[in-house]
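agent> Task received from the user: take the single chain below, predict its 3D structure, and emit structure tokens. No templates, no multimer pairing.
agent> Plan: (1) validate residues, (2) run structure prediction, (3) serialize to tokens, (4) report one or two observations.
agent> Step 1 OK, no nonstandard residues flagged.
tool_call: predict_structure(input=
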Amino acid sequence: MPQKLNKDVPTINGAMAFKFLEKFGSKPGLERISKLLETWGNPQDHMRVVLISGTNGKGSTTAFLSSILMQAGKKTGSFYSPHLLEFRERIQINGKMIPEAELEKLELEVKKYVDAEGEITYFEAAAACAYRYFAEQGVEYALMESGMGGRLDAVNAASEELAIITSIGFEHTKWLGSEISQIAYEKAGVMKNAKLAITGAGLGLETLKSEARKRGINLLAYGEDFEADVKKESLSGTMFDYSNEMQLAGMEIKMPGKFQVKNASLAVCAAENLECSENAIRAGLEKAKIRGRMEVLSKNPLIVADVAHNPSGTKALVDSLKALGHKKEEKIICVFSAMRDKNWKEMLKVLGEIVSVFVVCTPEGKERAEDAENLFLEAKKYAESYSSKSISDAVEFAKELANEDGMVLITGSIYMMEEVYYVLQNKKD
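)
tool_result: status=success, residues=429
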């Protein structure tokens, strides 16, 4: 078989809002967004804010808690980062994306501000617009997922009622530091004056506890103050028992993967302290959904997509697949792509524990993406490997290799998913 696949794929229309702000790059700090929010009358002060930081699990935890609050009858705004298919996914109220007309209006407001006042980064503008839209629409709760870190992340411009730190692992070391304690310190920055903080972190936990003590904030830790026991799991979902002040048996989530049980438990712990009923918690967990988390895109052949994009996320994915009985001998074909600034070598090593064939590729038009040739040279250390400059070709070739009895696993970067959904005709409005 050839070692390279070179079929091209048409460029996906990835146009997004606030494109004109990309020239300002990524710059941690609260000064710029605070100034913009003040110009807009500090909309973030008109809602109850939950800040969610962490290395992995932020999006899922946000989705679980948002769904619970909605079932409790609370008008709930959710801010996600990044998006999979279109920018509007980032700003949602009660599970519905911001209308295009509202987004265009906000984009015009940002342009006026930049023309008059100077710069604001892409992510800062997105977070500020979320706060403004939520205030204009009268939401009661705003669940704000951080983009990078926490202490200097744009969402942290608000005063939080509750803070959640999902996990701590190595990421964004250029900005957050090269030691776990440094990264944990930055993530802990969302605990400013919260009534309560909740964490699922194992690594960095002592740093989080220390920072909570300094601030006089009560910190509840998964595995110490509350816990969950998995009872049944499959690719269609997981059942577990939850133990805290509430003893909740037979909780069910539709998102597969053992790692989602911890994310769901963080949301349940938060919901308990936000005075949600057991019925709202159960219904919210079962109805919660978010794309790209061990998502089954096809059953014949079995195609699973996951946005794991760092070693800890990749390990959680591999451990979950192992727990479901999948193993290297079962013909698992992995379509893999990664951003250059991620630890993709370690990710490939972890995936090599279960993957029988790698088909590596480069997302269309992504300048940060690692070259497929470099991925190929590393991947072949762990399994039979092929390379492609086209995700379309990579996915189709992986499907051929998997046939009817294998699995296609698509992972490595959130930035490949738009093209994956396009190729598989699985894009949803």
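agent> Step 4: summary for the user.
The longest helix spans residues 100-117.
agent> Done.
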